[in-house]
Request: fold
Amino acid sequence: MKNIEDIHIIPVVPAPPSSEFGAEQTKKGFADGLIELGKLLPNVVVIDTDVAKATRSADFQKIYPERHFNAGVAEQNMLSVAAGMSIEGFIPFATSFGMFITTRGGDQLRNSICYPKANVKVAATHCGISTGGDGASHQINEDIAICRSFPNLTVIVPGDYEEAKQATIAAAYFKGPVYLRYGRDTYPIVPEIHGKFEIGKSRTIREGTDCTIFTTGIMVSEGIKASDMLKEKGISARVVHLPTVKPLDNEVVIKAAQETKFLVTVEEHSIIGGLGEAIAGVTAEHHPTRVYRIGINDVFGQSGQSQELLDLYGLRSVNIVEKILEVIKK
Reply:
C-alpha cells in the first residue's frame, strides 16, 4: 500500500487555444444557453444529480434557484422526475455526466422519456475520451450509439461553445426528447459553424471533390485543419460538420457520396454505433461508396490529460490526413 503522498495524480489541464479565436468549454455553452432560456421561457427547469458545479448547471441555479432541483446521486430518479415534470407542462433539462445518464439511467431514458415522447432535454456533460483524468469509468464513448438506438430521441453533438449554446436553446423549443452531448475540457472556437442552429441540418465548411471528411462534436476543428493540410498536398477534401447525429442530414451525406470518391468520418466516440456507422448505413442504401471511420477503436479509455488522450487515440488532424493519404495510395 502506497502512502498518499507517493501517489501521482495526473492533473486535468484545459486545452490551450488552438487558433486566434481561443477555446472554451461546450458545457459552458450549455450553461449560458440555459441562462438565456431562463429569461425567455418561465417553464424551463433544471434537474441535476449533485454535480451542479461540474455540469455548470450551478450557473443557472445562481440566477434561478427556485427552478433548479437536486435529485441527489440518483440518475434514474432524476430522469423519472423530469418525465413527470414534462407532463405538467415544464421543459426540464435533466443533466449529469453522460456515462451515468445513458448507462445507469438507460431504463428510465428509454421507458419513461423516449417511449412516451416526453418533452425532456437530457443534457450530458463529461462525454468522450477528453473527459481526461477521471479515466475509463467516466469516459463515455458509447453514448451516441445507445441514444441513436432509442426511438423518438433526437441526438445533438455540438462542436464548440457557441454551437452548444445555440443547440441548448434550440432543444428547448423542439417538441420531444433530446439528448445533448457536451464535453468537460475546453475546445477550439470554430467561427465557421456559427449562425442559426437548425436541428437536423449539417454545415458544409470546406468544398472538395476528392473526398469528404464528416465530423461531429469537437472533431470539427481537426477536420478543418486536415482539409487545409491536404490542400497543400494538392488534395481537395470537403468538410461537412454534423451537429445532429439523429436525425442525420441524409441529403448532404448522399450528395457527398455522389460527388466525392470516398468518405471519412471523425468522432470522439466509439467507431461502433456512432456517426461512422450512421453514414455508412445511409450510403449503403442510397449510394454505396467507401466509408472509413476514425474514432475510438472499440477500447476503453484511460486516465490522462485530455489533450494527451486525443493524441493517444488518434483523434487529430494529422491522423485524418494519414488515413486519407493511405486510402489514396491504395
About this structure: Residues 193-329 form a domain with the Rossmann fold fold (CATH 3.40.50.920). The longest strand covers residues 262-270.
